[in-house]
Write a structure and sequence with these properties.
heterodimer, A: 147 residues, alpha+beta, Alpha-D-Glucose-1,6-Bisphosphate, Chain A, domain 4, 7 strands, B: 777 residues, Aldehyde Oxidoreductase, domain 3, Aldehyde Oxidoreductase, domain 4, 3 domains, six-stranded mixed sheet, 19 helices, 27% helix
Chain lengths: 147, 777
């Protein structure tokens, strides 16, 4: 399941970059994320709860940031598994300064397996877009709120 | 033998208990102190198992046992291989619980037993399994490629069998032919979806060393024999009961599914009964599936439309393992010739492993594929030659005077494929008459003028039924006068309690209502192979006839001494034995049963033992071949892609009909399943072999709205292979449905020039074909 999109965030590129690397911001803005425990720099243990179609499940796994090219590029990897199956997501984020704003381009690929795939695959595209939309909306709010 | 009951629409003996909720299905078995099991299944289509940690599950509330692969000991090896074949070089079977690798989504990894199913399911969530995902062989075509990811690491490719059968000289036939048509055909995956999913209950009596198992299976006796061997028990100390079974359709004839070993094993280890009932979502991954094949087929004809040769080279998706061997592709390739004279024929298949649920026969078991390919080729040929599709078929039928007809192939029972009897042209013409084929062009034109897209389809098939090796039955008359039949074939709703009773009723002269049939209980009858391949009525039915005849002979002997008349003058009827011509001199069967079991004095030597009881076996040398023709009229909604079946005609010949109401029910149910496989039901998998249709929300079973009332007619060409003259009918309904529906849809959409080479269709797929065709015009 491949998804992509572009968002314009109301902050300079350095601010956006900092926020995208801030575990607290990631924790606050990733929908359903309960816990984000740093295992080593750029590698976190994550617990999240997500509902896809009729299957609401908890997943435990890791979130890691790789391919860092500050302040404009990184790759986000999320892997988790739980009673209702597993999920594996990969997001490539590119930032570009545009005056006082920053244009954020992202490409995501998500794979799910087990019960969530059998029951929820049809919903995955819609749910994925909604969750990613929530994520950026939250980032935007954080950025406008910060002094 | 008089035939008062065979052939009559006798009401079913089993219906009162089933219709009033007094049936006994596996889930109705409740035993004291029974524990409940749940299975942890792989979410990956292909992965190495790095670690399984069941520590937290073992200490979870209510959990009494957790089994993982190392806990199985000697039982952890590959499960039994059924039906070997010289061409099957890699007869891979799974383990009851996966060891180091999982090869399909749904493969069992751990087995949890707890005080309730809820607690067992909760504990499954606590088991930590670390998987290393491996590359996946998802689609059949990709898996067959030499560089595909290997489902089994010790193989050079995913091809586990390559088998060819030939008749005549196909190359020469194609070289000589004036017309050749070539096409690629795809049939996709489907599931049997019995209303009752699988289920097993086991109880162990350690003092008696006795194992009791209730199993929703089509083959209780092989299950008993296998369990006895695996657990080192005497066969007579293992009792397997297949009680009422809510449908099987082939999917319940495995020996073994993992749970059929895990449940008894847990019961023996724990010393308490254990129950496992498959839920519907599990059923979509853990019960065998069928149907995926890709055929590259061609046909050669002369200028008059006579078939010179047919060739098919196809791929067969075996799924992750191939416990049942290559029966399905053999049946597909031997069903393809159908009712037609094909002097030169080449069929060749490769069986291919994929990371999907294992495949084993499902009602039809390759027959729908063979018929789809053959009928599609004939439709194409008719169009290329400018002939009427009915005429092409007429010119190629095997004629009634050509039986027995040697097709020249080896059939699934390893015997030569020899049609015993039939009248193919007669069935065909009756079907054409009934559907109104002669007036069809005018009717269709009138409908088109009103803006309705109607199409007519007609398809023929020959169905191999009633194969060996054998079945048996024991017939007993008790002193009450009631007759009991015990047989090894289980029943899954086919009406055996009635049809087998009808056969004995005519021999013994008692009404079928006075006969109780016991099936599927190894304690009552311990010899047999199972219910599959449309064989119960033919093989068990003839065993019942033989046993009943032996009991009747004994009854005459005993009656002769009581009535002081020679045995030749004794007749049976109305539950009595009487002297011919003197009905007043009679004795009831119950009185005879009592007299045949004396408590004192002596017993005549010629009685050969006490009681009115006999067991007999029937072992056919080959199968009996039924045939039929289906014709239908469909209406296509070209805007939505929806299909409405307006009329559906079945003309069917399964030899002598035992019970026309039961037979019509078999055909009605088969057509319903066939419509599913033609238009509604499709098991979808994504590129990583994740199953996407694991609920009835996504896997569409046809309902009463989609299934039309059928118009059924019977032609009776008795089989010369058995004294009852019967042939099987279990799969007839399902076999030609994809072929006939697709042909009708094509006919309806003829103005758009749509050409269909796949089944099942679906509303969205059909709409896509329509949109493409309109765009290209």
């Amino acid at each position: 399941m491949k998804l992509e999109g572009t968002n314009t965030l109301p902050a300079p590129i350095e601010t956006v970059w900092k926020m995208l690397n801030d575990p607290e911001a990631l924790r606050r803005c990733t929908p359903g994320l309960h816990e984000l425990k740093e295992l080593e720099p750029d590698r976190y243990e994550a617990t999240l709860t997500i509902g896809i179609a009729a299957v609401r499940g908890s997943y435990k796994g890791t979130l890691s940031i790789t391919d860092k090219q500050a302040p404009s590029h990184y790759k986000l990897l999320l892997e988790g598994s739980g009673g209702s199956g597993f999920m594996k997501g990969e997001g490539i984020v590119d930032l570009e300064a545009q005056g006082e704003n920053t244009v954020l381009k992202w490409v995501g690929d998500m794979q799910i397996g087990g019960i969530i795939a059998g029951v929820g695959q049809r919903m995955l595209g819609g749910v994925g877009k909604m969750l990613i939309g929530q994520f950026f909306k939250c980032l935007e709010q954080q950025l406008t709120r910060s002094p | 033998m008089s035939t008062r009951y065979v052939g009559a629409p006798v009401p079913r003996n089993e219906d009162p208990s089933l219709l009033t909720g007094r049936g006994l299905f596996v889930d109705d078995v409740h035993l004291p102190a029974m524990a409940h099991a749940a299975v942890l299944r792989s979410p990956h289509a292909h992965a190495r198992i790095r670690r399984v940690d069941a520590g937290r599950a073992r200490t979870a509330p209510g959990v009494v046992a957790v089994l993982t692969h190392p806990d199985l000991g000697a039982l952890g090896g590959p499960l039994p291989r059924l039906i070997p074949h010289p061409a099957l070089l890699h007869h891979k079977t799974q383990s009851a619980l996966a060891g180091d690798t999982v090869r399909f989504v749904g493969e069992p990894v751990a087995f949890v037993v707890a005080e309730s199913r809820y607690l067992a399911e909760d504990a499954c969530d606590l088991i930590e399994v670390e998987y290393d995902p491996l590359p996946v062989a998802a689609s059949l075509e990709a898996a067959a490629a030499p560089d595909a990811p290997r489902v089994h690491a010790d193989m050079d490719s995913n091809v586990c069998a390559h088998y060819t059968q030939r008749v005549g000289n196909v190359e020469q036939a194609f070289a000589m032919a004036s017309h050749r048509v070539r096409e690629r055909f795809r049939i996709d995956r489907g599931a049997a979806c019995p209303l009752e999913t699988r289920g097993v209950v086991a109880a162990w009596d350690a003092r008696a060393r006795r194992l009791d198992v209730w199993d929703s299976t089509q083959a209780p006796i092989p299950i008993r024999n296998g369990l006895a061997a695996m657990f080192g028990l005497a066969e007579q100390n293992v009792r397997v009961v297949a009680p009422d079974v809510g449908g099987g359709f082939g999917s319940k004839v495995m020996m073994f599914y993992p749970e059929e070993i895990l449940v008894p094993l847990a019961a023996m280890r724990l010393g308490r009964p254990v129950k496992w009932i498959e839920d519907r979502r599990e059923h979509f991954v853990a019960t065998n599936q069928e149907r995926e094949q890709i055929h590259d087929a061609e046909i050669a004809l002369d200028a008059e439309g006579r078939i010179l040769g047919v060739r098919t080279v196809f791929l067969y998706d075996a799924g992750a393992y191939i416990p049942y061997g290559i029966i399905v592709p053999i049946v597909a390739s031997t069903t393809l010739p159908g009712p037609y004279r094909i002097p030169n024929y080449h069929c060749e298949f490769r069986a291919v492993f994929t990371n999907k649920t294992t495949v084993s026969p499902y009602r039809g078991a390759g027959r729908p594929h063979g018929v789809f390919v053959m009928e599609r080729l004939l439709d194409r040929a008719a169009r290329e030659l400018g002939l009427d599709r009915a005429d092409v078929r007429r010119r190629n039928f095997i004629q009634p005077d050509e039986f027995p007809y040697e097709v020249g192939l080896i059939y699934q029972d390893n015997a030569p494929l020899r049609y015993d009897s039939g009248n193919y042209p007669a069935c065909f013409e009756r079907a054409l008459d009934r559907i109104g084929y002669a007036g069809w062009p005018a009717a269709q034109a009138a409908a088109r003028a009103r803006g309705r897209w109607l199409g007519c389809g007609i398809a023929c098939y020959v169905e191999g039924t009633g194969i060996g090796p054998y079945e048996g039955a024991r017939v007993t008359v008790e002193p009450s006068g009631r007759v009991f039949i015990a047989t090894g074939v289980g029943t899954q709703g086919q009406g055996h309690m009635t049809s087998l009773a009808q056969i004995a009723a005519d021999v013994l002269g008692v009404p079928p209502q006075n006969i109780t049939v016991h099936t599927g209980d190894t304690a009552l009858f311990g010899w047999g192979t199972g219910t599959f391949a449309s064989r119960a009525a033919t093989v068990a039915g003839n065993a019942v006839a033989l046993a009943a005849q032996a009991v009747a002979a004994k009854a005459r002997l005993v009656a002769a001494s009581l009535l002081e008349a020679p045995p030749e003058e004794i007749e049976l009827g109305e539950g009595t034995a009487f002297v011919r011509g003197v009905p007043g001199r009679s004795v009831t069967l119950g009185e005879l049963a009592r007299a045949a079991n004396p408590l004192r004095f002596t017993m005549p030597k010629e009685w050969e033992g006490p009681g009115l009881e006999a067991a007999r076996y029937f072992a056919p040398s080959q199968g009996a071949f039924s045939n039929g023709v289906h014709a239908c009229i469909v209406a296509v909604d070209v805007e939505t892609g929806l299909l409405r079946v307006e009329r559906y005609v079945v003309v069917h010949d399964c030899g002598r009909v035992i019970n026309p109401v039961i037979l019509d029910g078999q055909i009605q149910g088969g057509v319903a399943q066939g419509l599913g496989g033609a238009f509604w039901e499709k098991l979808a998998y994504d590129d990583e072999a994740q199953p996407l249709s694991t609920t009835f929300m996504d896997y569409l079973l046809p309902t009463a709205v989609e299934v039309p009332p059928l118009e059924i007619e019977h032609v009776e060409t008795p089989s010369p292979l058995n004294s009852l003259g019967v042939k099987g009918a279990g799969e007839a309904g399902v076999i030609p449905v994809p072929a006939v529906i697709v042909q009708a849809v094509e006919d309806a959409l003829a103005p758009l020039g749509i050409h269909i080479t796949e089944a099942p269709l679906s509303p969205s797929r059909l709409r896509q074909l329509i949109v493409e065709a309109r765009r290209d015009r």
